[in-house]
Amino acid sequence: MATRAQFENSSDIGVFSKLTNAYCLVAIGGSENFYSTFESELADHIPVVKVSISGTRVIGRMCVGNKNGLLLPNSTTDQELLHIRNSLPDRVVVQRVEERLSALGNCIATNDYVSLVHTDLDKETEELVADVLGVEVFRQTIAGNVLVGSYGVFSNRGGLVHPHTSIEDLDELSSLLQVPLVAGTVNRGSDVIGAGLIVNDWTAFCGLDTTTTELSVVESVFKLRESQPSAIVNEMRASLIDTLA
Amino acid sequence: MKNKRKGKEIASDPSDEDDDHDASHSSDDEESESDENSTVNVDFEFFDPKPEDYHGVKLLLQNYLDDCEWDLAGFVNLILGQTRVGTIVKAGGDDPIGLITALNIRRYKELPSIQAIRDFLVKRAKNSPELSKLQALWQSDKNVGLLVSQRLMNVPLELCPPLHDAIFDEIAWATEDEPSVELRESFKFQQYLIQTRVYKEKVPKKQPVNEDGNFIFIKPEDELFFQLSSWHFTFPVQAETMLAHQTKGLQLLGLVMAVSAKQIKAFRSKLKGLVC
User: According to the UniProt record, where is the region Disordered (chain B) (predicted)?
Assistant: First the structure.
């Protein structure tokens, strides 16, 4: 199910929150409305944690994570790091990264199996992404743009990318990620998908400006219409061969 | 009766050839950089509100209700939906740099956005002697127009007379051109309610607080509205402005005024006098 939300009158909820299959991070300081929108959908299944990163509220763009781990920029303070580590499940590895491109959420787009990273990302960071997040890493651009985390959002079931992505790029990315992809917009025509949309395998949240058409595209490409949280959280992804058999 | 549109018809772009809107008034404007002797020509164009202007208008109205969380999206859609009365100003690009419109409070009173505005203003008027007048205005069955006017900081003064001519002319034409009697009546405003921002010098606590006067008006027409207003009140404002360093010693206040429709003619002539 996809829900609309807003953070202090801003539709850019992807800037102020981060959603994975194992946890949800939310910025401090939004009204309780924002927090309770997430809690009502998620609290029964995964922890919803209020955090800040280096004193800012733009946590969605600063960090990147999946069910295996979470990467934080080097500007994260020790107290913040400790708070996050304590609040997340033990199997989630929380790691601070020394990386010049510190807005990790803009530079890296990931699901539980594959990651796309900014073409200029350090080699060490790439290895850390592969280790901590437990993913296969690809350096890619989306519609010619290096900020893959800003212009593409994907889960284990589907992905939404910048509207100007060509068919060839869509095919290439789709074969790398092994999920169906669609080029589209959120928040009434905005092409910055990462700012307007957060998604995991059973639910998604879009900015309040998102039109009904955009919302239905999100629900269909991420296969949210009949999902049940418990089934997704616990299961392993079936390999392609199983579906052919 | 057909809509009478006077004023210069500028050479419109091919992309603007559209039956739905017309580029009506426009004013050529010269801004001179006195140091470098260079002149920048800017054409300000007036358009009817269109759905495409959504994001720009939303940005202009971001702080309309200070830091309150309310149905801003609904309010913007309301403004864009009223194409006959309302003007969006653009400076040669696609992005709105200014907006003016008048919304009949009674006509839209069921909408959550209008109710949010009412609740916000009533709450801010709690300590003011004008509270009862404000509440009476919201509950009255007279036609009260909420005049919403917002633009970027550095839009030149010369724009004000055409801008206000546009809105008051459109209101007058709407009383003749709207399809139903009810709609025509709804634009016969008897009062206008205006919410705007002003600066006031911060007084040291020992001196008595002087409510009236000594306002520094951000928009020049607000001063004229203030002089012609029936009543007004101010309230403190939380949201920060960009000019913090330039406005040291000044406090930003919200100002709400009610102006009788009979004063509009005087307002328009005074405004022209201010510019020339």
Answer: 1-41
How many structural domains does chain A have?
A: 1
Letter string b/e over residues B7-45, b meaning 16 or more CB atoms within 10 A of that residue's CB: eeebeeeeeeeeeeeebbbbbebeeeeeeeeeeeebebb
- Which domains does chain B carry? 4-275 (3.40.630.30)
Domain with A31, as residue range(s), is 2-243
The distance from CA B160 to its chain's CA centroid, rounded to whole angstroms, is 11
- Which chain A residue's Cα is nearest to B53? A188
On whether the CB atoms of residues B163 and B26 are closer than 8 A, the answer is no
The two tokens of residue A95 are: 């790691």
Determine the distance in angstroms separating the CA of A214 from the nearest CA of chain B, rounded to an integer: 16
CATH classification of the domain holding A204 = 3.75.10.10
Contact B160, B87 (CB under 8 A): no
* Residue found by looking up tokens 């009204």 in the block: A31
Q: What residues contact residue A174 under an 8 Å CB cut-off, 6+ apart?
A: A159, A180, A181
- What three-state secondary structure class fits A63? coil
Q: Is A135 exposed, middle or buried (CB count within 10 Å of its CB: 0-12, 13-18, 19+)?
A: buried
Task: Give the H/E segment covering residue B163.
Answer: helix B160-177
B94 touching chain A per CB within 8 A: no
| pLDDT by 10s per residue, chain B, length 276 | 333 343 333 333 333 333 333 444 444 444 444 556 788 888 899 999 999 999 999 999 988 998 888 899 999 999 999 999 999 999 988 899 999 999 999 999 999 999 999 999 999 998 888 899 999 999 888 899 999 999 998 888 889 999 999 999 999 999 998 899 989 999 999 999 999 999 888 766 655 555 556 888 989 899 999 999 999 999 988 866 556 666 677 888 999 999 999 999 999 999 988 877
On whether the CB atoms of residues B65 and B237 are closer than 8 A, the answer is: no
b/e sequence A21-47, b meaning 16+ C-beta within 10 Å? bbbbbbbeebeeebbebbeebbeebbe
pLDDT digits (tens, 9 = 90+) for B197-241: 998 887 666 555 555 568 889 898 999 999 999 999 999 888 665
Contact assignment for A9 to B72 by CB distance below 8 Å: yes
Closest by CA position to A71, among listed A95, A103, A51, A99: A95
Tell me which residues of chain A have a C-beta less than 8 Å from any C-beta of chain B.
Answer: 6, 8-9, 11, 31, 33, 188-190, 208-209
B93-103: per-residue pLDDT in tens?
889 999 999 99
